Automatic annotation (TrEMBL):
SUPFAM superfamilies: (Phosphotyrosine protein) phosphatases II. This is Dual specificity protein phosphatase family protein. It comes from the Bacteria. Residues 108-173 form the Tyrosine specific protein phosphatases domain. Its EC number is 3.1.3.16, 3.1.3.48. InterPro entries: Prot-tyrosine_phosphatase-like, Tyr_Pase_dom. Coiled coil: none annotated. Keywords: Hydrolase, Protein phosphatase. It is an enzyme of class 3 (hydrolase). GO terms for molecular function: protein serine/threonine phosphatase activity; protein tyrosine phosphatase activity. Transmembrane segments: none annotated.
Length: 216
């Protein structure tokens, strides 16, 4: 009989389908939201908040997004065509199992989603640039870690450390303090810290003092 104590799990609390995290993300001038599966699958809610772009962090979550099927699509395959909004998929595991560079890749993918300018061709119909939603299944771990990393690196005057950015995102996402120890999962926080160091090196900046100390 195995009487080992189970791993501690945070209680589940209700939270909004989407939460406004940053009203004006600099230098892009758009609002940044976090949500879960309920928010990213609600086009009316997204339209109400001016969200035109969605970045899905979850490998275990997909959505029937196509609203305008391709007229050349065959009848014996999955539907493809244009969706309700501009959509990017990162695909993180909520815990261990991710390649160590995936959070770094997610950071640059999110920057790309914020800055990408689409050509004026019929095959790129969703050219409107509006607010951005970052989501995962519950909007409490993967998306929180990635958005905190983005805020820390893009707005360091307001979020001088990753921990400061995490506290801000947890509060605006209405995560209860009782679940902060696993929201985000510690392994994802560590991945964000490692990515922060790599971002500085890529930009030829010295790592933050705390990150440099950890590397010694």
């Amino acid at each position: 009989m195995n009487d080992a104590s189970p791993m501690k799990k945070a209680p589940r609390y209700d939270r909004p389908d989407i939460s406004l995290i940053e009203e004006r993300l600099e230098p892009y001038g758009v609002a940044l939201y976090i949500g879960g599966r309920e928010g990213m699958s609600n086009p009316d809610l997204l339209q109400k908040h001016g969200i035109t772009t969605v970045v899905n962090c979850a490998v275990n979550l997909d959505v029937n997004l196509v609203t305008s099927p391709d007229p050349e699509m065959s009848d014996d395959g999955l539907t493809y065509g244009f969706g309700a909004y501009r959509y990017y998929k990162l695909g993180l595991v909520d815990g261990g199992g991710n390649a160590e560079t995936m959070m770094l890749a997610g950071y640059y993918q999110l920057l790309g989603a914020l800055s990408q300018i689409l050509p004026e061709r019929a095959s790129y119909p969703l050219r409107e640039r509006g607010n951005v939603l970052v989501n995962c299944r519950g909007g409490r771990s993967r998306s929180v870690a990635l958005v905190a990393l983005l805020l820390h690196k893009q707005m360091p005057d307001r979020y001088p450390t990753l921990d400061a950015a995490l506290d801000h995102v947890r509060t605006r996402r209405e995560l209860h303090p009782d679940e902060w120890f696993e929201a985000p999962k510690p392994v994802l926080v560590n991945a964000a810290k490692a990515a922060s160091d790599w971002i500085d090196r890529i930009a030829h900046r010295d790592p933050e003092p705390a990150e440099a100390a950890r590397a010694q």
